[in-house]
Amino acid sequence: MSNHVPSTREQCVEADASDPLGAFRDRFQLPEGVIYLDGNSLGALPRHTLERVERTITQEWGQGLIRSWNDAAWFTKPTDVGDRIAPLVGAASGEVVVADSTSASLFQVLVSALRMRPDRSVIVSERDNFPTNLYMIQGTQELLAGAGRQLDRRLIHDDGPTLDEVLDDDVAAVVLTHVNYRTGRMYDMAAITEKVHAAGALMIWDLCHSVGAVPVSLGAAGADFAIGCTYKYLNGGPGSPSFVWVPQRHHDPARPALTGWQGHAKPFEFTVDYEPAPGITRFRVGTPQLLSLAGLEASLDIWDDVDMAQVRVKSLALTDLFIALVETRLSGHGIEVVCPREHDRRGSQVSLRIDGGYPIMQALIERGVIGDFRAPDLMRFGFTPLYLGYADVWDAVSVLEEILTSGVWQEERFARRGAVT
Ligand SMILES: Cc1ncc(COP(=O)(O)O)c(C=O)c1O
């Protein structure tokens, strides 16, 4: 499938019939008549999530009450669940912990990295990074300025400056997102990490659009810290917690920003002074979001059975198909495909730049083809191989073709904007 792009709907149906990942679709509950191309924003609902969350509510909470901290292993959930995420990001057991939000997790690891490079004064990131990363860097600068440490923020961009141009021996840490949220462009994690290390800086990766989307090898790349969310490709559910990866070699030197009691070495001794727990546990802060964690556990039951290499092959085949269909069937509509053509630079999404992107996306959603829109002009489509097939891609492009040809998207109601796009 990776080399041959179907050119008829029949060929798409045949490709679905021989798809080694085809059976996973039944493990998700998707509404009838919907083609869901927004799993890069919020993943779909696994069928047994409801039962799993209900068990936590009715049995573990309702019956077990406070006893469940031990009996249902609530207390060690953040690291137990972290161990289940570890294989998806090329991490070892004991290197991943789940908690909080990606933004908070970035603060935790950024402050750790800055403390490990006390004599350096620059944080590098990129202008096109997801804004929360840029804001968290600014907040950290402000905070540390108050403590007498002045830090500069240098931002790279495709139009310059490049990473090579900003890296020098003032740089303490580099914060990049592996797969860009707008364009789906993927960085070479190992090559960039090596370059950053050559300058003596530490490398922090945001994996929000990578985990469950592309194979990730944090350990092999020699990265220093990583964070990511679990509600996109991992399908953990709305608001499911983020994760933090810290390789074992940094566990002792790393001092996270937030020194909460659940990251303490002996939380139930209730001592007056903070003492960091050994290992990744020191990246815990307070009481974990146990209902959200139950949803995440349900989705990881699916991931336990998934071969990430198969996901990658199908993801590239689906995005290749979508790009080919847009270019052949929708030429003449002024669409620009915004994502790298090279497989090794593409994540699992395709964005289309077109005038009227917002109302066109609303017209698509009204017809059951759900993607999203990112200002100023990008329609974004995520491809999730566990519950999407080749015929879905064909049908989605057919609906887009109908909308563009008929001009229905110009009706006034499609221009109305909700708070979330
Ligand atoms: C690259 C990236 N980082 C971070 C976030 C958001 O993080 P949080 O979990 O704090 O909302 C997103 C959200 O879409 C993202 O795309």
The level-1 CATH class of the largest domain: Alpha Beta
Bound molecules: pyridoxal-5'-phosphate
Order of helices and strands: HEEEHHHEHEHEHEHEHEEHHEEHEEEH
CATH superfamily (homologous) name of the largest domain: Type I PLP-dependent aspartate aminotransferase-like (Major domain)
Q: Classify the helix fraction into a percent range.
A: 25-40%
Shape: globular
Unreliably modeled segments: none
CATH fold-level label of the largest domain: Aspartate Aminotransferase, domain 2
Q: Biggest sheet: strands, sense, closure?
A: 7 strands, mixed
Figure out the total of helices.
13
Q: Any guess at the CATH architecture of the largest domain? A: 3-Layer(aba) Sandwich
Which strands sit side by side, in order, in the main sheet? 4-10-9-8-7-5-6
Question: Roughly what fraction of the amino acids lie in strands?
Answer: 5-15%
Descriptive tags:
421 residues, alpha/beta, Aspartate Aminotransferase, domain 1, Aspartate Aminotransferase, domain 2, 2 domains, 4-stranded antiparallel beta sheet, 13 helices, globular, binds pyridoxal-5'-phosphate
Walk me through this protein's architecture:
The structure is a single chain. This protein is of the alpha/beta class and 421 residues long. It has two domains: 131 residues, Aspartate Aminotransferase, domain 1; 253 residues, 3-Layer(aba) Sandwich (Aspartate Aminotransferase, domain 2), CATH 3.40.640.10. It has 13 helices and 15 strands. It has a seven-stranded mixed beta sheet, sandwiched between helices. A hairpin with a 3-residue loop joins β14 and β15. α1 runs antiparallel to α13. It is globular and about 70 Å long. The two termini are 33 Å apart. The model has no long low-confidence stretch (mean pLDDT 97). The structure holds pyridoxal-5'-phosphate.
